[in-house]
Amino acid sequence: MRLYTYFRSSAAYRVRIALGLKGLAYDAVPVHLVRGGGEHRQPAYLQLNPAGLVPALEDGGEVLGQSLAIIEYLEEVHPRPPLLPQAPLDRARVRAIALTIACDIHPINNLRVLQYLGEVLGAADSQKTDWYRHWVLAGLGAVEALLAGDRRTGDFCHGDVPGLADCCLVPQVFNARRFGCDLSAMPNIVRIAANCETIEAFRLAAPGNQPDAE
Amino acid sequence: MRLYTYFRSSAAYRVRIALGLKGLAYDAVPVHLVRGGGEHRQPAYLQLNPAGLVPALEDGGEVLGQSLAIIEYLEEVHPRPPLLPQAPLDRARVRAIALTIACDIHPINNLRVLQYLGEVLGAADSQKTDWYRHWVLAGLGAVEALLAGDRRTGDFCHGDVPGLADCCLVPQVFNARRFGCDLSAMPNIVRIAANCETIEAFRLAAPGNQPDAE
């Protein structure tokens, strides 16, 4: 398997964690999202992944895009250890936590959106930081509410083994801290992120441990 | 089953289509996203769905959030007719198309984001419309590239029966037209959306056919 990745991409970080939790080896191919206007926008990369986004996973002769689609694929092809629980209602809960992060926080704060705010709307850096924090706190606030109000929350988002929701939570917490967001009102998130950080798959997937880290 | 829905919510529209394609009856409970500052932000709704977003599906004694998590749940509990193909690589493709819409277009153009642009950043209506069109065209451009470059594209996004990707595409095309986006460079999307519109499940799920339509 070959993973097209960028050390700082939160979506690539999710997939790196999932690959690590499943013990799957892969070749990392760095795609620089900033240099030269973004290698992901160059014809060579667009031929591989027409959507022009990172990450992408090459496997079985196909190139798969979208981090959550990639992780669901890994779950189907390499079911052990599972990243989703067995019961449909529980699977829906885990997916809903993952999607709250992947849909309702990350895309709004993505590099290209911040660039648009500055370049087209003339937002100042402080306004971009306020924007970033606003959506992180709204989205992680929703995640915290989902975690706090449910007896299925354990050492991790769902029970006592890490799974899909944790693969999404940890990169988002990493970014939240990078942008100076105050997470003190989110004790479940802080606790679960700390638990994840004790696990090698999460540590090895961190941006600072990637071959293309700057 | 009970669906908490808003006629104009693109995410609720996806779930309404999926329920229709599977032939599942449900009670629609309208949640008005604008009136009174938004019924989805009131304590009564937050008690049901702490994430405070529409849609939510009540089934099996639980309330499930996030449209794609809900549709995956329906697929697991009511597998016929399937909304995902069988092979893992094909399932990944369909999910990637769905997520390109659900992550990379819809959340950036959501009502609350447009409100922030106007109220906090002082964006004019014309700037909000430009913003909307920019992300629709970037995102649907990526979807068109995924459709055009793949022999698995058929009468619908994947083959000749409607599925998860079509459940996401049609509401996004509806919104794109509402905001006057020019889709003429996207022949696959236009063709597939037209095919979907011949199917009753898609028609019955449309915003104008909801009990809370204005």
From TrEMBL, chains A, B:
It is an enzyme of class 5 (isomerase). InterPro entries: Glutathione-S-Trfase_C-like (IPR010987), Glutathione-S-Trfase_C_sf (IPR036282), Glutathione_S-Trfase (IPR040079), Glutathione_S-Trfase_N (IPR004045), GST_Zeta (IPR005955), GST_Zeta_C (IPR034330), GST_Zeta_N (IPR034333), Thioredoxin-like_sf (IPR036249). The keyword Methyltransferase does not apply. Residues 87-214 form the GST C-terminal domain. Its EC number is 5.2.1.2. One of its GO terms (molecular function) is maleylacetoacetate isomerase activity. PROSITE patterns: GST_CTER, GST_NTER. Keywords: Isomerase. It holds the Pfam family GST_N_3. Belongs to the GST superfamily. Zeta family. This is Maleylacetoacetate isomerase. It comes from Thauera mechernichensis. The gene is maiA.
